[in-house]
Amino acid sequence: MGQINLKKLNSTQISWDYYPNNRIIDDAICPSGIDTTVYLPHTKNLVFTKQ
Length: 51
What we know:
three-stranded antiparallel sheet, mainly beta, 51 residues, 37% strand
């Protein structure tokens, strides 16, 4: 869980900011053996450019 902010900078660029929420995951919520890794870039002011 978290928040992703996308902002259109111009016609070819979008900036990305990801703010994860702090949340404890335990076996009651998520069964053991499940991958709980977040595979999102944790970088401030990441810019995607359309080529």
